[in-house]
Amino acid sequence: MRIGTCVSKKGKISSGFLRVSYKSKSTKLPIKIIRGDENGKTAFISAGIHGDELNGIKIVSTFFKKVDPSLITGTLIIVPILNPIGFHYGERRVRYDDKDLNRCFGKDKNSFSYKLAQTFMDSVVSQSDFGLDFHDSNKNYILLPHTRIFDKEYKEVDELSRIFGTEIVMKRKFKQGFLASESMKLHKTPVLTVEIGGGMSVSSKYLNEGIRGLNSVLAHKGMLDAEVLLPEKQFILSDRLGYKSPIEGILTINRRLGNVVERNENLAEVYSPIRENSSIIRAKNPGILFSIKANSHIKANERALSLLHFKKQKDEIIPTEAKVILNQATSTIHIYTTGIFNKAMDLMKSHSKDFFEALLNE
Ligand SMILES: [Zn+2]
User: Is the pLDDT of residue 206 over 60?
Assistant: First the structure.
């Protein structure tokens, strides 16, 4: 296989670049191809479509630096950064034409970002059986790790999300121009979107979670000699509830990502240094802190955080609107029981009577 200047060699990791040029502008995408000794599936792993999403870029880079090619079956194409221009400036978009690259796939239009998207689609996606595309929340927010699937059923994407093994899976609309949508439409290549962390800050905990998911998917697909490790439960959600700041000011968040919160709990304070007043943001219902603003300056009506709310179903507490998947150990699947939700559920069970009453009164 050859992509740009990168030529695969059996049992080796090869390096090279794929050049993309449009009029006077150009960029080079770094490419790695890991070719196993045995033939098998071809998959791509990419990150950095948005230049300010560093966790994905770091996960993908750490993976190819650590992986032993003798454990690989088939061919892995690795593109750690799809938007080097955005990365250079620390921003989401491609500065050459001010486009969001993840809205430019599958569109026959003239401009640098469309050309970049089309080059990636033709050179990488078209020859892959499946792909994993890593994102994070962007420079402004930090998110709990989750994968994204479509609101319509796409079996192969749903399967990738289950095996990647985040406790949270979010549904979203199948939109034109997304890498994951257009790969499916144009080449029938399922692509899983992974979201981990954010705030232009790399977390080692999330890094490990990303590598674990990557290993599980590749092991499941018969491409890597590794364990498939899944949580006991996975929750498929369609939404979270955002909480906005009523005033402009300095934001102090009192809880951490993944913390369980009670109804009316004080989640954050916004202080206006000009009016010398404060506003408190309280939980409308019990839930788990799902995303937080990464820096402390906040405008009026800007989102400060979001919560996954809960409801009581039989004897279980599950997130509102969630579908629960129970995973069981098999000869190839191992189960871990130390996730955020298990901790949260334990904490809730030890919580006050009020907590349950709040759920029942909804
Ligand atoms: Zn992104």
Answer: yes
